[in-house]
Amino acid sequence: MEKVTKQSEELTPEQKMAQAKEKASVVLESLPKKDEAPTLTNDQGTNDATTLAAAISAANDKPTKEIPRQNTPGSFTKKENPFGWNAYSSLPNPGEEAKISELNDKLGLDSLINMYKGQRSTGEQHDLLAQFLNEAYYGEWYHNSAVMLFTVVFTWLLTRFGGGLMACLVVGAFLATYYQTSIRRLRRNIRDDIQRELAINRLETEEETAGWINHFMSRFWMIYEPVLSAQIVGIADSILIENTPSFLDSIRLSEFTLGTKAPFIEGIKTLTRTEPNVVCMDWKFSFVPNDILDLSARDLQSKVNPKIILTIRVGKGMIGAGMPILLEDITFKGHLRLKFKMFNEFPHIKTVEASFLEKPYFDYSLKPVGGETFGFDINNIPGLQSFVQEQVHATLGPMMYAPNVFTLDVAGMMSGATDLDSANGVLIVKIHSASGLKDVDLFGSVDPYVVIRSTNSSNPELARTKHIEDNNNPRFDETLFILLNNINNPLLFEVMDRNVGRSDGTIGVANFDLKSLQESDNMAHGLSLPVLRKGKTAGELKCDLQYFPCNIPDKEEDGTIIPAQESNSGVLRFTVHECKELGSQKKGGIGIPIVGNSEISPYAVVKMNGVEKLRTKPFKRSINPRWDKGIEIFVTDKTQLKLNVDIMNSSENNILGRWNMTLEEFEEHIFIQGQDWWNLQGGAGKIHMSMQWKPITMTAFADSFAKGGYSAPIGVVRVKFLGANDLKNVEAMTGGKSDPYVRIKSSVQSRGQTEYIEDNLDPEWNQALYVPVHSIREDLIFEVMDYNEISKDKSLGICDFVLKDVAKQVKTDDQVIYEALAPVSRTAELTNLERKKGRGTLRYEASFHPTLALAKEVDDKTKKKEEEVSANDHEESNSQASSEPELIEKPKEWPEKDLHGEVIKYSTTGDKKQIDLMAYESGVLSVKIHSVQLPESYKTKVELLLDSNDPQYQSMEQKGSYLEVDETGTVFVKEMDFSKLNINIKNVRDGEKDDKSIGRCSFDVNSVVRRILDREQNDTQDDNIEEVKLLECPGGKIRVSFEFVPVVQFKLDPSESLENQGTLTVNVIKASNLTAADRGGTSDPFIRFYLDEQRVFKTETYKKTLNPVFNKDEKFSVPIVDRTVANLVARVFDWDQIGKDTCLGECRIPFTGADVETFQSVNKEIPLTEGGSITLGLLWRPELVARKRTNTSLFSATTRVFTSAPGNAFGAGKDVVGAGFGAGTKVLGAGTKVLGSGVSAIGSGFGRIGKIGKKSSSSIDTESAPPVPVIPLDRNPSTEATENAPVPVPTTSTKQGDQNSALSSSSDSTQQLSRSMTTIEDGSMVNVVILEARNLKAMDRGNTSDPYCRVRIGNKVVHKTRHIKKTLQPDWNESFTAKINASKGVIDFKVKDHNTITDVDIGDHQFDLAQHVQVGQPFDGWLPLSPPGTGEIHVKVSLTDSDSVSVASKSGNKLFGMR
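The structure corresponding to this sequence follows.
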């Protein structure tokens, strides 16, 4: 040990590093080896799309060489002269399947069989007598009649003109000859028909012995059996060397013979009741070589029994030993039905169907040890023989035991079309990226790669991408070439996680049905496939697919075969069959050369362009190895492909010989010179090889894959979610109900969602969402979710929506368009995420609206070729063309309508004409996010929000300060004039419901489309990237570009218009002629306003008047989701100090577009139901209403103004209803700039304003409160001017002017937000009004409480309100006055739940008078209770004299009467 330590100390640092590397390599080598990635299936040795596209493009530009190939089976050239029986008959050829099938449908099978049964007539008979007389036996009846008549007439004429007896005898001789011929034909036909009928009956009832064919087989078998055995041994050995286990040296068929006795056909029975092109027979046959009863003595002497010896060699080299396994005494018997279906092309047998009518019998003797002499038959082991037989029957039964049939496609085999091992096309898969991949284990990082397989995950992999280290959102950008026999099977994308030292984990699997490629010209671009693991989403995979079939010969109508179109790109199948006489030449003792060496174990290495593509297994101890091993590869350019084959000796690892040649030379040697054996270079021996070339035309490859992962939108799907019923209650354990909403998912990307409805299992949303779609395969998922404030939202169920239900694909001459089908209205059953039966139903309506589709223009290459051809033709036809000037380019023709038949809107500027995008109100805006620059490194994602608080597109997560995003998202623009796009840069670490963002920017869609139009007009297509500074992110920038595609066949529902969503500002001016409610003939009126039966505002009380003038700045704003259906009601009450307030009347306030114009203030006098009227000033501002989702389901404030509006329409600093929830006393003002920061940067800094449209209502009676700072919304599309916008200070305003004027301006006055600390003197009086509470925590079992408020100053309880039963929104409206000392300047408000035995605390708030209240400036606002989430309490606190009863606030507060 000391010596080793000393030696290690003497080592240099370099030597120590080398020693450490050596130890590490030993450890790594001891780890289990991973499966190597499959060899690239192309000749370029790379998956880079740019390199491959360049190679294919260069190959397309090169001329192709025509090589004569073998004729395709079924090919012929039709002769001009008629030939064959069907040229002279009206009956169709039975080989013409279509005509036979048509006749079968019309006439039936029996009539069709009789039609082709023994017909001898050459034409149809149309005379009347032929319908009753059968003339098959004596010819045509008119022939015989004419002969008899002619004989009589001619004899009479002879006697008339003096003829004698001799003349009559001559005539009689002719008649007798004719009669004899007719009778002979009659007898022959009768005999022929009788024999045919007897033969048919015998065929159907008896079995034929087939002795002649058995005699032929006994002679032919002696000649053919050695050849057959040699072929079987060659094929079997090539299979065995590929499947030899590693612990064995070799497996070889050392002996093989089927014996001298041929198979025997015991009988054949023919079934005649079949179609004319079908022959059906039942064969009984047997192979019993040990039966010697039918053999002669001479046959017994030469008889050889079947024997199969499989030699298994164990050990290596000289110490190896072979163990023979003997199989003999083979016996087989079977009853097989064969059905031959014929057609009229070579080889005229289309298919053969085979089916065993009964289980076949077989027997054998298997001796694995001891050989022929001492071998033990393992069938003697009890139960083993029956077990083997049952396994054989279980395997063959589903394949070919009746009624199952095994079909052999003879015609397809002859033409090579049914070769299941041969590729008939190449599938190009471009894998762009994956996103949102979930970890499969708890340790290590995610290092994803993609493996592609066919049908199921147990099949061999077809291709594999590289792995990306530590990335849940990898970008692959690889193009894979997959050779396929057909596109009838599904394709599996298995996303794997690479591990070191242990097996790789499976992240999930994405599926794609290749059959759907046939519906869209073998192309599917822009796919977003969900990656599923155990039925749940584990990520998303983005890829493009395109299938290029091999060019095949085409057949014209006259039967002429047109050879397949040649191409320099295609599929090469290269096969190394065998070698002969391998080994170096040696000379014996007498100088005779000895060729070969039996101790060599050769194998072949195939290289293409110097890259190894195939390595066979060693063929042990043979100088004549046979591999029959081939490889298929996609060749981008066969003119540049070089082939090399090295024959190596595995025992000594030396080269036995080489062969090399270019593909073109090899092709000429095979197809022109007919060569199939070549001499090896550098050694003795010959090699047998073959090739098959299948050309593929790849002209569209470069264009189709140049677009990347983005596909242009084909239209927009409108989904209106009406409601749901009987949803699953996932909050039953906590005593609540689900808060459902619906979201639309395209793959794993959420494209939009409705608002949630609190505590409702039968919600009614009546909300429409719009989703741009990019492919007819882009099916959508509607998922009903349960909203949770803190935890993750839960799925209540999903339903699938297939886009083909509302859209169809229509092929025109040279392109594909998508048309809308009739809208659908459905009630869908919900399933769980595993697609199993769930609970509840979802009601929705869906429709499709296509985008503007223009006819494609001819590309430049095609146009140039057409111009050259046209010029050449013009020169040849017109000799004066040289004197003519050059052709002037014709002006571009602008179509009047698009491919949907919609009129295209154009604009003309000067001499230029272009599509007027500004004339289209709606369309799809494509936003390409190029890059993002941040001041420091974050893990971020980019969100697109268009007129929404929920993102409609999210980019993949990336980490860094400079992010190459390079993604394109699409959003639907409903109204261009009002729409605004917001882009958020969000930190991934922040929750989905967190409003924070790293940076943001906003764009006016109208301005964006205007810039696109100007860019197209100025032909500045290359300079369309905009670099914009990010707000709230110093130094942050984002680079984006835009495209806009109009949507046609679409008209926006007025109820969905953004102009009907916004903020209504109401100024209460006066009331007239109110009803007297008091004894003195007056009233103490005040007005409450209700929106959809939820109270939103209450005025001050005006004492003893019937015509009050509301001069105390009675003004409020309320957000409206849809003013076409909103119901705003004003109710006038008489205030009573004792008892309930008396209603003096109510009225509905109309404010639709017909009543109130946008941004136009209007005065309205509205009559009351009980007499009198009120006068209101109304102002409507279209704004996006951001319904911020929290645990109370209340709206946040409105967010932004769509277009410019007077900033002082009602004066700055007016109140917003319900402001301040969750933020102490927050209220937003500042004129029309009503917004804050929050989700989507649209502004959600507003507080609560009421629970509009929700089941659980909240009555809010909010007065004015001190404003707080707000951040004005940037309305400049460039967003640069407001990067560091100043924060305005809070304002107060005093109303002045004529009380009868509807709306008058007021000047803003500013003050510091932070109040100066007030010195509270001993004996000061504090006046407290406890108005109400909201969103209290439920403490009782019925999800309610019986709340009251207890007020403590110091250690003394100074007030306690009455308790109100079963409510979470109590309205106390109680006040008190108390003395306060300087040492006790904190008021403790505690809300409690009243119970019979013990009251329970709900929450409390410690209110510091010195921080919130000054003399003359009272506090009025909502106080959050502690702990958080237990509710809020609304109070008014002021310092006053002991005899004061009300306080007038200079900041716009109202006058409250004391009760």
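The first strand starts at residue 250 and ends at 257.
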